[in-house]
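User: Teach me something about this protein's shape.
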Amino acid sequence: MNQIEKQIDRIIASLKLNEGLRSVRFVREYGPHNVENPISGLLAVVSVTDTSLSKSYIGGYLSSTIKGDSYAAKVEIRVYAPATENGSGLSEIVSELLTGLKKADSQKIIVESDASPIAFDPDLNAIYRTVHFEIEFCLCEEG
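Assistant: First, the predicted structure itself:
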């Protein structure tokens, strides 16, 4: 498992502990679990939409001898609700996610987060909102 996946898994695991998100089932976008169609409850599909890795001297003001890997990723959590429920509770869940991201980010690597307006997915016959967040972190070494 790569470093970005480890950090995202840590954040999602912490989100799952949030009492306000207990009714939400989290799955990876291309994971082993199939998404039921039609959606039967609140579902959060987690995907990494963009990643970057740069190797460089990253010491800045610390030291010119500190080098390492600088990682960045864009992540989205698409929260689905059955169309039959008219999105009941969807905005509250998204608000819990945005608040929960701050608490889940114990290493302070989330640099930005936001949420999209409600939309409809005709393939799943479900409405959804998307929470986006970006992470940035470095793995450093002396030398």
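Now, about its shape. Strands lie at 25-28, 43-57, 66-82, 110-115, 119-121, 126-142. The first strand starts at residue 25 and ends at 28. If you'd like, I can walk through any region in more detail.
User: That's plenty for now, thanks!
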